[in-house]
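This entry is listed as follows:

___
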Amino acid sequence: YRQGYFDDGPLERPGRAPRMRNALKPGSTDERVLDAKNQPIIFQVKVLPADQMPPPMVGKSPNPPEKPPSRGQRTYTVQYKVPIEDFRKTTHNNTGTIHVGAAVLAFNGTGRIGASLSQTLTLSFNEADATTVSGGLISFAQSINLPKSQKYLYLAVWDPASGRVGTLQIPLEENKQEN
């Protein structure tokens, strides 16, 4: 398997025109826009054991796992930053809302899934501050209990409205601490 970021070149074949679609606009008009469904969502992620995660910003703490960790498990927090512009949004009274799907799959050394978590979240933000304060990124976090034998994570985010997906594989580094 591959880890990290790899630039495999353009997603479109050379010499082929990008796909366009008609977007309906208010007032019974339509506009030709680039069909971005085949473009991945590029996102940032930080994964740490929950007890090593810095204190969250107000309103940004992750939901705790459904159950406390069992023997041989450890709770991890996965912090995501996703670009708002990559998701279909709705706006009402200067408050934007997007729906984001997020999943974590944990694999052990033999490639078997040891734990998984998938959620669809509704995130709200101040439309006026979205680009200036956060740089167009919105943050959220997930907590998951993982067996200590897990070696790497496969993370995914998607837009349920458009079907666009972004994925990332990262190694899960065990921080050895003396007790």
Remarks:
- Confidence is low (pLDDT under 50) at residues 175-179.
- The chain is about 0% helix and 50% strand.
- Strands lie at 20-25, 29-34, 44-49, 73-83, 89-92, 95-108, 113-126, 137-147, 150-158, 165-171.
- The CA atoms of residues 3 and 43 lie 15 Å apart.
